[in-house]
Write a structure and sequence with these properties.
The protein has a 4-stranded parallel beta sheet, with helices on one face. By secondary structure, the chain is α/β, with parallel strands linked by helices. The two termini are 50 Å apart. It is built from 17 helices and 15 strands.
């Protein structure tokens, strides 16, 4: 029965294709199997949070396809041959190879700390040189490329469909694009497949055209052909890669094979700060390493996925606070559900109560709504709205003193979030441990120890018992300054941090 449902769901998936400019019904080249490639990082520095929007989103795309029953071959590459790597290697007094290896390892640490599923393949340009050279040779043989004094260029005039992805003709591209006017080019828009080594450069690779380095665009095409074949189902990347990178990939591959290179082009929009794209050149970047030092990975993923992938994502203190408050609401409900599950409350002798039956019906409806949202071009904001409607329903159910099915409702609630949070790589944390880890992280930032807080709370309790309200109020003010809230109960005083107040950008 489950397999039948999954087959039906496959037919419902619609994806926005950049090339067509509209949503299309998804159908893979091979039934039940998806070939998926996403442009990965150029490894010359710690990656900023803008680089990780695509990593988080396309991890979700891959996971959802697998949820629907597809086998997904997911390739996420490393660009480890690039001028930026060469320039940075000089600054750090490392060889380009060692510099790239250093930042590949650092990227992997961040990726793992975000608790994203590892791609099927993580190829590097340096490991694909044979395939790159073979591709260039074939393009020259087919008169799609030409060699000039050790440099090899792709001739865009040989590919009539050039500009189809960005939906612009060559005249428009020429007027809008800054191009390198290199000697020997037949057309200013012709792009490099192989770059001749410059004077005094010691980093190079051997080729039939002499010493040099491959161009950026041919690297991705070669890796796709090597690991996935000449035609793939999904190619992902940031919207800033549409032109020239992905446009040039199409020209290289389709120009050579005559086959449709990619069935679905998917592009995530940018993270912006005060209206500007986050980038190193603008000096407005925050590295993922520094973000994860101060905030939990769950917060970043929640923020990214709360916005539709094709919309710009505003990153600010306000949006981060809003995301944290929303995330804390959900996790606080998970803590409550956990406590109810562990309680000794007696269940109805005859099994299912009216409350539980109604709750299960609501869950079934929510399940369908979430699947429809995800199948509608990965509309995560719609799904998040469903999550919060369930949150409010759950709170209402557990506040009902006469509800005899709280334990089953709590179990159903937690199971639902685990199941539909998993493709998003969200809601899989132990709720109580999540809060403790978050508190410890924020206390560490302010150099405050738990023992200090416990001691002040204890002193305040003694002052209250002795009716020394002046001292009690003074101690409370001290805790208020630290954004610590105290709740007095019959069993004593409990404290917790006002976590949303700890956002500091």
């Amino acid at each position: 029965m489950e397999k039948v449902k999954k087959t039906v769901m496959k037919k419902d998936l619609k994806i926005y294709d950049t090339e067509k400019g509209k949503k299309k019904l998804f159908e893979s080249l091979s039934p039940g199997y998806v070939r998926m490639y996403c442009c990965g990082p150029t490894v010359y520095d710690y990656l900023h949070i803008g680089n990780f929007r695509g990593a988080v989103f396309f991890n979700f795309v891959r996971n959802w396809l697998e949820f629907l029953g597809y086998k997904v071959d997911y390739v996420y590459n490393f660009t480890d041959i690039d001028d930026k790597i060469l320039n940075r290697s000089k600054e750090e007094s490392l060889s380009p190879q060692k510099l790239a290896e250093k930042y590949i390892l650092e990227f992997k640490k961040d990726y793992q700390n975000l608790k994203l599923k590892s791609p099927t393949h993580h190829p590097r340009a340096t490991q694909t040189l044979k395939e790159i050279i073979r591709l260039i040779e074939k393009l020259i043989k087919k008169n799609k490329a030409y060699e000039v004094d050790g440099n090899v260029f792709y001739s865009i005039s040989s590919f009539k469909e050039y500009g189809q992805l960005s939906n612009r003709n060559t005249e428009e591209l020429l007027s809008e694009t800054r191009v390198e006017n290199e000697p020997g080019k037949k057309n200013p828009l012709d792009f490099a497949l192989w770059k001749k080594t410059k004077k005094k450069e010691t980093w190079y690779f051997e080729s039939p055209w002499g010493k040099g380095r491959p161009g950026w665009h041919i690297e991705c095409t070669a890796m796709i052909h090597k690991f996935l074949g000449e035609e793939i189902d999904i190619h992902g990347g940031g919207s800033d890669l549409i032109f020239p990178h992905h446009e040039n990939e199409i020209a290289q591959s389709s120009g050579l094979t005559g086959k449709k290179y990619v069935r679905f082009w998917m592009h995530n929009n940018m993270i912006v700060t005060e209206g500007n794209k986050m980038s190193k050149s603008l000096g407005n970047m925050i590295s993922m390493r520094s973000f994860l030092k101060n905030y939990p990975a769950e917060l970043f993923k929640f923020l990214i996925l709360s916005c539709h992938y094709r919309s710009p994502l505003q990153f600010s203190k306000k949006t981060l606070e809003q995301a944290l408050v929303s995330l804390l609401k959900l996790y606080s409900s998970f803590v409550e559900a956990d406590k109810i599950k562990k309680s000794t409350q007696k269940l109805l002798a005859n099994g299912t109560s009216k409350n539980l039956k109604t709750f299960k019906q609501k869950l079934q409806s929510a399940k369908q709504d979430i699947q429809e949202a995800f199948n509608d071009d990965f509309a995560t904001p719609k799904a998040f709205a469903v999550f919060f409607s369930l949150f409010h329903l759950f709170k209402k159910e557990i506040q009902d003193k006469h509800n005899p099915s709280k334990i089953q409702i709590a179990q159903e609630y937690l199971s639902f979030f685990k199941r539909y949070g998993k493709p998003l790589s969200l809601f899989q944390e132990n709720p109580s441990l999540f809060f403790k880890t978050l508190e410890d992280k924020f206390l560490e930032q302010k150099d405050i120890k738990r023992k200090q807080i416990d001691q002040i709370v204890q002193e305040r309790n003694l002052a209250r018992q002795k009716k020394n309200f002046k001292k009690s109020d003074a101690l409370r003010k001290q805790l208020d300054l630290w954004n610590i809230e105290v709740k007095d109960t019959s069993e004593g005083s409990e404290w917790h941090l006002r976590l949303s107040k700890f956002i500091d950008l």
